[in-house]
Amino acid sequence: MTRLNAENVNPHIIKAKYAVRGELAVKSEEYRAALAKGDTSLPFEKVISANIGNPQQLDQKPITYFRQVLSVLENPKLLEKPDVLIDNFGYKSDVFERAKWLLSKCNSVGAYSASAGVPAFKDSVAAFLEKRDGFPADPKDIYLSAGASSGVNTLLHIICATPNSGLLIPIPQYPLYTASLAVLDATCVPYYLDESKSWGTDLDAMRASHDKAVSDGVDVRCIVIINPGNPTGASLAEEDIRSVIDFALEKNLVVMADEVYQTNVFVGKFHSFKGVLRKMQAETPGKYDAIELVSLHSISKGMVGECGHRGGYFELVGFAPEVVAQIYKFVSISLCAPVIGQCLVELMVNPPKEGEPSYELYQKEYDGIFSGLKERATALHEAFKTMEGVECGDPQGSMYLFPTIKLPPGAAEAAAAEGRTPDEFYCMRLLEATGICVVPGSGFGQVEGTLHFRTTFLAPGTAWVGSMVQFHKDFLAKYS
């Protein structure tokens, strides 16, 4: 018998669930491998991985300027032959200047950096934040991380002291949060977003969840906000953010603002928690000084889409020095974030400026990616309107739609026979029939008695949308 088995490994890992890479994703990869080997028995010719926000897997092209700079960082000998790259590969002179500057600050992308990140890159993030919000940012409060997920992991380790430590988590939510809390053996305190109000925050629901948890003896320490939302796509208005900050002040909660989709906003504009907090502090001096806020951003989403390079940052506001020391210690245990990812963070927050040689192509690519995402979101939303029993709010932001689906009783019975929830059953049949992989709403949390699924709108073309519409029609006909 092996030393390790399902009965003696860490039970908190077994308890954790992460639906976006769960059973459906595994099966989709099996189909992808079969198709690559020439299997013609499947009823589709391509797998569409609409289950995860992975832009470049779904043919979003990397920003040329970013990749050109990275190529020089990985192979500095290219600096010896700039004319060859300019004449034959479309490089611009500012690519080499930026690469030289980045290398002068980190020495080599193959070397460790300071634990919290290369200081000069943190200066660039601070300048970006000041420009974005209109308020100063201090580089010492900024930590470069291996994507936003790494930052979340760091902060949750600091916040979750005992199994009784509770965090308010939005439902539906990105399952990173509930899975991480399960691993840490801490307490998830769910609060439901209001689908009838475009998945906005519901202060009454928030307060009721908090107060019930406290009455049950939970030490509620933090509230998590995902803005723009995942999986909902909701983009919060400034008044909603103000309400959350007031609530956090009232209940003495840390605010964790996951803002990785801040450039993916189609309706209205993005309001950062840091910017709104600073406004509130200026309006009422002294009142909000005790607020502890951490906000996170990433190179994985938006128009950058460099998921595999693992880069991001988080900024601390209002944390006690002795807590900051423990955060620094924790990130030091992992030595540093990938330095190539740190370079990409610097490029993201400090892209080519108007008048520089690379600016025109950069802006053309950036705008093209944004308009393409918006067009595909609109096309998918229009398709949902034609599907019986499917309801979905207008696309607001992020990379996802989260429609409600109403399924016939026969589907629920067939799902129960397989030991699945109806939404899991629907998504599995969709994958088997079309090769389209989406995630059932149960993987994110949903109000009891409702069913949803989350899909990205990253995949190019519209043929796959037509396949989904036809599948839905056939599914209803079969199980009604």
UniProtKB/TrEMBL annotation:
Identify which cofactors the protein needs according to its UniProt entry.
Answer: pyridoxal 5'-phosphate
Q: Which family does it belong to?
A: Belongs to the class-I pyridoxal-phosphate-dependent aminotransferase family. Alanine aminotransferase subfamily.
Which ranges carry the Aminotransferase class I/classII large domain?
Answer: 103-462
The record's annotation in CDD domains points to: AAT_like
Q: Coiled-coil intervals in this record? A: none
Organism for this UniProt entry: Zalerion maritima
* Pfam families (alphabetical): Aminotran_1_2
GO molecular function per UniProt: pyridoxal phosphate binding; transaminase activity
The keyword Transferase belongs to this UniProt entry's keyword annotation? yes
Q: Which UniProt keywords apply?
A: Aminotransferase, Pyridoxal phosphate, Transferase
Q: Kindly provide the name given to this protein in its UniProt entry.
A: Glutamate pyruvate transaminase
Which PANTHER family does this UniProt record tie to the protein?
ALANINE AMINOTRANSFERASE, ALANINE TRANSAMINASE
* Top-rank lineage group of the source organism: Eukaryota
Instruction: Write down the InterPro entries for this protein, in alphabetical order.
Output: ALAT1/2-like, Aminotransferase_I/II_large, PyrdxlP-dep_Trfase, PyrdxlP-dep_Trfase_major, PyrdxlP-dep_Trfase_small
Query: Quaternary form?
Result: Homodimer.
